[in-house]
């Protein structure tokens, strides 16, 4: 279970290094569009426990609530190719009392070329009724400790792609 420690540094971004598998690619040797979701979600699921000591299932059991996706917004910039090593980053870029937006992005191994960007918007809902509920306790603490709380009110995914590409050019 996540326990906030005010003296501890909590990184806002997770990172994984993975290879693009043959069975996940189309005949052109590009990662299949639907497989990006698997790569993103698996990378985050692997990294969150390592970075934060948090198994999301523990929060679900304790609070009898879970995040449910109600919107995906994805931008395919450059293809990921079979056998290629890539980096996958994820972070909660925004949250309020009952919603989060998780940003996932994939780059080449050297982190100089953006391949794909995904925003997943999720509502926090009760397991029993499936109704929206507020983040509380350890859930709220986790979000406060790890969320970037980027102002996305006037930002669309195309703008964010440009921002990330610009950041890569500076590094």
TrEMBL record:
Identify the InterPro entries for this entry: HotDog_dom_sf
Return the Gene3D superfamilies for the record.
Hotdog Thioesterase
Q: Which UniProt keywords are given for this protein, alphabetically ordered?
A: Hydrolase
| Top-level taxon of the source organism | Bacteria
One GO MF annotation is:
hydrolase activity
> Matching Pfam families, A to Z?
4HBT_2
Keyword Hydrolase set for record: yes
Q: What name does this protein carry? A: Acyl-CoA thioester hydrolase
Native organism: Algoriphagus ornithinivorans
């Amino acid at each position: 279970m996540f326990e906030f420690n005010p003296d501890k540094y909590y990184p806002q971004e997770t990172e994984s290094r993975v290879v693009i598998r043959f069975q996940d690619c189309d005949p052109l040797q590009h990662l299949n569009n639907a497989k990006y979701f698997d790569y993103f979600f698996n990378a985050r699921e692997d990294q969150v426990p390592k970075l934060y000591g948090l198994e999301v299932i523990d929060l679900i059991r304790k609070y009898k609530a879970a995040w449910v996706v109600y919107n995906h917004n994805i931008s395919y910039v450059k293809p990921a190719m079979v056998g290629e090593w890539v980096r996958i980053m994820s972070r909660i870029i925004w949250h309020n009392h009952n919603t989060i937006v998780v940003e996932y992005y994939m780059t080449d191994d050297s982190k100089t070329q953006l391949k794909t960007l995904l925003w997943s918007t999720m509502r926090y809902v009760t397991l029993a009724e499936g109704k929206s509920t507020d983040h509380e306790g350890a859930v709220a603490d986790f979000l406060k400790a790890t969320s970037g709380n980027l102002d996305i009110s006037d930002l669309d995914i195309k703008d964010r792609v440009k921002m990330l590409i610009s950041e890569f050019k500076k590094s």
